[in-house]
Amino acid sequence: MATVNTTTTWPGTIRLASDADTPRIGELYRICQWADHGVDWTRPGVGAWWLIAEREGQVLGALQLIASKPFGYIGDIVVHPSERGQSGNGTSGLCQTFGILARTLYASALYILEAAGVEVVMGIVAESATSLQRVLQRHGATDLGHYVLMARRTGA
Q1: Most exposed of 48, 54, 60, 110 (fewest Cβ within 10 Å)?
Q2: What is the DSSP string of 135-154?
Q3: Sheet harboring 71-79: ordered strands across?
């Protein structure tokens, strides 16, 4: 299990999730009121695709990543409201101010994907997530244009 030392950034542990962690990721979605589209968080194998951020036994953030060659993928990121960046008006969210935990999760994911031999990392960023777009652009990301996001539930 890979871990990333975050003592200089976020005071917790970032690590690859296991199947034992996935119900806690599902709970984080619920706490954040983030749509999970009816995912079964108890299903075996789900944990293999996530990084989690935890402190004192509590999962405070999760980021989906898929390592494949030559392309990798960074998907959903879910951060507990207490760990989000704050905007000038006192509200919080990834669309307003990209907090230190979210930055640490992204940096950790990029490090892991590069170490796995991924050449190009792709992901989907909401048009309203301008803070995230700016952070990613500062670190070399390029806007690939506009697409229609589509999904289909499987029979699983």
Answers
A1: 48
A2: HHHHTT--------------
A3: 3-4, 13-16, 50-55, 58-66, 71-79, 120-123
Beta carbons within 10 angstroms of residue 147's beta carbon: 7
Structure tokens of 138? 């500062």
**Contact in structure between 17 and 47 (CB atoms under 8 Å):** yes
Q: pLDDT tens, 29-56?
A: 999 998 888 899 999 998 889 999 999 9
Terminal-residue alpha carbon distance, the chain: 27
Pick from 135, 122, 138, 6: which is nearest to 60 by CA? 6
Q: How far is CA 86 from the centre of its chain?
A: 18
Q: For residue range 112-152, list pLDDT tens digits in order.
A: 999 999 999 998 888 887 877 887 888 788 988 888 878 88
